Sequence to fold (438 residues):
Amino acid sequence: MSGSSQRFLVRPSGPLRGELRVPGDKSISHRAVMLGALADGITTIEGFLPGEDCLATRRAFEAMDVACEETSETGMRIHGVGLYGLSEPSAPLDLGNSGTSMRLLSGLLAGQEFSSTLIGDASLSRRPMRRVTEPLARMGAQIETTEAGTAPLHIRGGQRLHGASFDLSVASAQVKSALLLAGLYAQEPTIVNEPGISRDHTERMLASFGVDVPVSGLSCRVRGGQRLKATTIDVPADLSSAAFPVVAALMVSGSDILLPGVGVNPSRAGILKILEMMGAQVSLLNVRAAGAEPIADLHIVAGPLHGVDVPPALVPLAIDEFPALLVAAAMASGVTRITGAAELRVKESDRIAAMAKGLEAVGVRVEEAEDGITVHGGGVRGGLVDALGDHRIAMSFAALGAVAPEGIEIVDVANVQTSFPGFVGAMAGLGLNIEQSA
Ligand code: S3P
Fold:
């Protein structure tokens, strides 16, 4: 979808007010379909994200003969086929823009009796896949990539997988999850040791399906052959999507919004800590559990922000939220520095380059480094920004448009559908002055 002609035009907005139910968590929605498909029995999902990425996962399982029955716009019943019940797909599985689908499925499919091929759009076809195919090969998986280590991935079925112990060089939930899913099919236990915290939705959800996944510090393990028992998954609202109304409300004076039922899993909540360090008023009300995940109602009141040096330990806990944090940094007083974030260069776009270019285009001074960026805050003028087909770049600049005296026009925004369907209507409902054109 990259290169699409869809654009947003955002003009200076009055205070954002009211309540918004942000769509379901993308990471959790993917996993709910995958584990539901492998379970024995019918899994009920509430709050599923009907965004393009999760629909790509759903279509992949439908192509392997898993029935996914819609019960409402965000409700689904997955008719699980059991650990060994998937059927061979008759065509390559097209995962669109979704790195999570491709990386997790490569682990899951490496253990099947049948072969399969995974393909994606132009952005996904540029993203590094050796980080999953190499450790999976150590388990006995046979996966062929292009010479550059990218998709298409050809996964040869009928391999006997062996458990192994892995010391990952980067904290990555996608790599960890691919190994744990392959580990369900391995003869010996699979152990994953990470250098830092990455999101732990897979471990939590496997436990909800009755799988024993002992976790100790930065290490987790799984034994193969454990059956999954169908369950009910209540998907929280996605904190990564909440980030856009959160920063918009913080920046536009007089704003006061409530976002109910947002996931606040500590392995994801770095953005809240960083915003707090910047002086933001974000209150977590009514903290409670949605199944295995903690959720809260986020109450945000506008107020002045100041720049910070983001502690490197918080970087993996906020990795998807840096585009949103950087627009907040542009409006903060003083300087914000991010280091230790080289992973941002291999997301849906090179997010360091995309944000640097976009911020410069709207009048913000930035300095780009290989592993991060420095933003000189204090205000923004406005102008034209290319989102480069990256949903989070598009939504971040839409939030910034609210405080740009000349407004911000953002091009190539169609991929907002991957994670936040209804973004324009939702933000307009809070008071953002936003229009979309084809
Ligand atoms: C995800 C993990 C993260 C994140 C991505 C979703 C997941 O990537 O950036 O958007 O659902 O597992 P890492 O694999 O780098 O942790």
